[in-house]
Write a structure and sequence with these properties.
- The protein has about 725 residues and is an alpha+beta fold.
- The protein contains 25 helices and 17 strands.
- A hairpin with a 2-residue loop joins strand 8 and strand 9.
- Helix 6 packs parallel to helix 8 and helix 11 packs across helix 25.
Length: about 725
């Protein structure tokens, strides 16, 4: 039966070689971030034989090792390096979804649920329309991390059983570490969920027979509870330390990067961006065939109906109370600023960095999948009881729910004059599964037929919703982009950067062409660079933005038409060419060519990647170009003629060190942004090396943690009778 976990992905097989976009969207993070990062990582390994800790690809350079989207620290993600294209990414994504489904199946089976019920819960979880919508949006690191969540719960259940037998189990810490390496944002949600589940598991330590409880004195009871709390806290802390140790290379570097980035200044409103509008709760009943992935709520009609049944049924309600509460709380959190005073949570330390409350909907979906499995399990063992109060309640609730769905669908049709296909579909699925559950309660459907029917309806329902959430396209690069621009820029020799105020050079195309950009899209941007670019581009900041320059109205072709860049300031960033979707009538920019609506300018104020500045005022500084001997992500070697100040048009960042003629020297920060060093008279060999202390410290902690785990495993194996 386990092979059924493959079934939900049959609908995507025809599109394995395509790039999946959200319907109506021109962008996907897969093309913007993950493909360029994979290509850069692969090139670094093949060409320079090194793991890149710094990347010069966008934003004039940034700490690649500290970027959670780099994929550098998550080993399973390296599979895409074998084939960094649409097929490679899609296969790795599906492998993760299957991994998540298998983890959910094992977790549900560990809770003694029947195989058909466990399979149903696993299928619902691995193919949640919300998950597929995030795949289409390109949020693949988030999908990777979410797929590990059932394994975290399963590992915690196994750990608890080990503790009851007096054994040590550190598997939850290892899995939580993998989640953090995959996507540190989901690590927070997964960690809280794990702690809640661990506390719920620990109730067995507190529960004891009534006669034992009543025989204890009050002081003994309090002492026992504190002992249990200390034991739980100690074990939880141990698992957290293991996870933090394994993820230390990313966590330490990220903490430093975040403190220096624009993200550190998020306001509460920015932290709660894309909060789920209450009207979107209707998505629980109807699949969402358009809109943002963050607001997709639909869990499938089978998940909804069977979860409601689990809540109504007294037996399953008591067994699944944890998941009822978890589902409700996560749904409330997803509403974010839609709930009064909720935005005050952004003032809590670290909470403001999470952004986008609807990410909690993944926990809602997981909870509904588990509740649906409980409901299915109860129905499979159902014995009809005449005049059963729960049976009457189920029929009443499901009848009301079906009528509500159809009335709402009819109302939308009469108001808009168009058939709402998604609402029609949801209403039909709700009706069919409600009828099936009601007939099963009357023993009108044999167990095997009921299980098969529900699984088939669920697969058909999820297939429709998942297919509606994706828009397959043949290329990472939008068809309107002019190949002529890239061919021209690729033909230019030397090292230089390109800037576009209109996102006319998209990151995947620039990456595949080997071009370095002064602009870029990334959730983390250095505050110093953002301030410099605000003056250099003439485009004012508009609060936190993942794009640089910002596009306040989300229209790159129009938003920045009224702003002119400063050619000299861009020149100091080694920006040799400016590519724009509109005219830039600015001194210092020479129009070279037009490719359709795309304008290509040469910056006549461009500075080389490295130069030596002599004495003088800003208008009479003597400049000598320096020769770059070797240029790799982590090391740059230069030959320069002194005396003066060598300026390297690269971003100054903690961890960069410099040697002049083999002797260490002080790294200067020039213009509040660039790297430099003072040179005496004569010819000098200068080497800049990126050796971030926190990255190396994190790697040391990770190695120490793995060694410690290995020692504990060997000791445990030797002590096993």
């Amino acid at each position: 039966m386990i092979w059924l976990l493959l079934a939900p992905f049959f609908v995507l097989i025809p599109y394995l070689g395509d790039v999946l976009y959200s319907p109506g969207s021109g962008y996907t993070d897969l093309a913007i971030s993950h493909l360029p990062n994979a290509l850069f990582l692969r090139e670094s390994l093949l060409q320079w034989h090194q793991f890149p800790l710094w990347s010069p690809t966008i934003l004039s350079g940034y700490p690649f090792a500290a970027d959670p989207l780099s994929g550098l620290w998550y080993p399973p993600g390296w599979l895409v390096l074998l084939r960094p294209d649409a097929l490679g990414f899609n296969l790795v994504i599906i492998l993760h979804l299957l991994w998540g489904g298998l983890g959910m199946y094992l977790f549900l089976r560990a809770m003694k649920l029947a195989p058909p019920a466990a399979i149903l819960g696993a299928i619902i979880f691995e193919s949640l329309p919300k998950t597929i919508a995030h795949v289409a949006a390109g949020h693949i690191t988030l999908v990777y991390a979410v797929s590990w969540t059932p394994w975290l719960l399963y590992a915690e259940r196994r750990r608890f059983l080990s503790v009851m037998r007096g054994k040590i189990n550190f598997l939850p810490g290892i899995i939580l570490g993998m989640i953090l390496l995959a996507d540190v944002r989901w690590g927070f949600y997964a960690g809280v969920l794990w702690l809640v589940y661990s506390l719920a598991q620990g109730r067995i330590w507190v529960d004891e027979p009534d006669e034992a409880e009543t025989s204890r004195k009050f002081g003994e009871k309090v002492g026992r509870y504190f002992k249990i709390l200390r034991q739980f806290s100690f074990q939880a802390l141990g698992q957290i330390l293991i996870s933090a140790g394994l993820a230390a290379p990313l966590l330490l570097a990220l903490a430093q990067y975040t403190s220096l980035s624009t993200r550190a200044g998020l306001t509460p409103s920015e932290s709660f961006t894309l909060s789920l509008p209450p009207a979107r709760l209707l998505g629980l009943f109807f699949p969402d065939t358009a809109g943002t992935a963050e607001w997709v709520v639909y869990p499938s009609a089978a998940a909804l109906i069977l979860a409601i049944y689990a809540v109504i049924n007294t037996k399953t309600r008591s067994r699944a109370s944890l998941w009822i509460g978890t589902g409700v709380v996560s749904l409330i959190l997803a509403l974010g600023s839609s709930i009064p005073l909720m935005s005050n949570l952004a003032y809590l330390p670290g909470f403001s960095l999470l952004r986008v409350p609807p990410r909690a909907l993944f926990i809602t979906g997981l909870s509904l999948a588990i509740l649906a499995a409980f409901g299915m399990d109860e129905l499979l063992s159902w014995i009809n009881k005449k005049n059963s109060s729960s049976g009457k309640a189920v029929n009443l609730v499901f009848t009301g729910l079906t009528v509500f769905a159809w009335v709402l669908t009819a109302g939308v049709y009469f108001v808009s004059g168009a058939v709402p296909v998604n609402m029609l579909w949801g209403s039909l699925m709700i009706a069919l599964i409600s009828i099936g559950v009601s007939l099963r309660q009357q023993n009108c459907i044999p167990t095997n037929w009921f299980a098969a029917g529900i699984l088939i309806l669920c697969l058909v329902d999820l297939g429709f919703a998942d297919r509606s959430a994706v828009d397959p396209r043949s290329s990472f690069i939008a068809p309107e982009e002019s190949a002529s621009v890239f061919e021209y820029l690729k033909a230019q020799g030397g090292v230089f950067r390109v800037y576009s105020p209109s996102y006319s050079l998209r990151q995947p195309a620039a990456s595949s062409s080997g071009l370095q950009l002064a602009d870029g899209i990334d959730p983390l941007q250095l505050e110093s660079y953002a301030k410099y670019m605000e003056k250099a581009t003439g485009i004012p900041g508009s609060g936190y933005s993942v794009t640089l320059p910002p596009f306040p109205n989300g229209d790159p072709a129009q938003d920045n038409r009224d702003y002119l860049p400063d050619a000299q300031m861009l020149g100091r960033l080694n920006v040799k060419f400016v590519v724009s979707g509109y005219d830039l009538n600015q001194v210092g920019l020479k129009l070279l060519a037009r490719f359709g609506d795309t304008h290509l300018y040469e910056n006549q104020e461009v500075m080389p990647r490295a130069w030596v500045e002599g004495e003088g005022t800003s208008s009479s500084i003597r400049v000598n170009q320096a020769q770059i001997l070797a240029y790799t992500p982590n090391r740059i070697s230069i030959q320069a003629q002194g005396p003066g100040r060598l300026v390297l048009s690269e971003i100054a960042y903690p961890g960069w060190q410099v040697w002049v003629d083999g002797k260490p020297a002080e790294v200067l920060t020039i213009d509040g942004l660039l790297r430099g060093v003072t040179l005496s008279e004569g010819t000098h060999q200068v080497t800049f090396v990126f050796r971030p202390l926190l990255v190396y410290l994190g790697m040391g902690l990770a190695i120490f943690t793995w060694i410690g785990l290995g020692v504990l495993m060997i000791a445990r194996w030797k002590n096993t009778p």
